[in-house]
Design brief:
It contains 11 helices and 9 strands. With 254 residues, it is an alpha/beta fold.
Length: 254
């Protein structure tokens, strides 16, 4: 696992384990550490999650999992979910740059990002059902919140793979580009967001994500609190003064 600042205020979390980035327990622990690292660094404003040019992540290490008992998994499943949740809870925009396969845990990892850029030949899926299992790192929950329960059930029940075109159509990804453009596109998008108002972006992510976890009334209260709190930040002062002085869309944030 590598965390590197690849552009001003933008970090890449690079999953790099031959051959197709299987997400074994070691990689899971490294993901959590990487999430904690970029969360703690105030100079980093956006994150790209990348598995390299060949594959994003082809899922869990099945050979490792096959040796585990029920009691083993009772003890380890919490750490599995915690590592993915740490990525999802990074309080900055996170963009997944998806090439090749994003299957099982790989798809679940991509779901932890806020936005997803996929290669034209990328493939997504939750094939756990074919192993006599269900997704265990957020796939039944994050996927259904993103694409709706009916589409999520189709993918989880059948275990089928989804093309990049279908993923775009159902809202699983935001953009589809040529394979060689995936990482540069994600970096450019992250750099654009990194130049934005950090406090406001953090508040927006918090309001959306936390709001999805609760009912509408509570979600609106979360939004109200975040909205009001931004009036105590330099983002609000900079944005509004720029609007008054220069018109809309010209603010430059620190």
């Amino acid at each position: 696992m590598e965390v590197a600042e690849v552009a001003p205020r933008v970090a890449t979390i690079r999953v790099d384990r031959p051959k197709l980035n299987p997400l074994d327990s070691h990689v899971q622990a490294e993901l959590k550490r990487a999430a904690e690292q970029v969360t703690a660094d105030p100079d980093l404003r956006a994150v790209v999650l990348y598995g390299g040019p060949i594959a994003f992540a082809a899922g869990a290490d099945i050979k490792e999992m096959a040796a585990l008992s029920y009691t083993d998994m009772v003890l380890r499943s919490g750490a599995l979910q915690d590592s993915f949740t740490a990525i999802a809870r990074i309080p900055k925009p996170v963009i997944a740059a998806v090439t090749g396969f994003a299957l099982g845990g790989g798809c679940e990892l991509a779901l932890c990002a806020d936005l997803r850029v996929a290669a034209t030949d990328a493939r997504f899926g939750q094939p756990e059902i074919k192993l006599g299992l269900i997704p265990g790192a957020g796939g039944t929950q994050r996927l259904s919140r993103l694409v709706g329960p009916a589409r999520a059930k189709d993918l989880v029940f059948t275990g089928r793979m989804v093309s990049a075109e279908e993923a775009l159509r159902i809202g699983l990804v935001n953009r589809v580009v040529a394979p060689e453009d995936v990482y540069p596109n994600a970096l450019a998008w992250a750099a654009e967001l990194a130049a934005g108002p950090a406090f406001a972006l953090r508040a927006a992510k918090e309001a959306i994500d936390r709001g999805l976890e609760t009912d509408l009334v509570t979600g609106l209260e979360i939004e109200r609190a975040q909205f009001a709190a931004l009036f105590a930040t330099p983002d609000r002062t900079t944005g509004m003064q720029s609007f008054i002085d220069h018109g809309p869309g010209k603010a430059v944030f620190d």
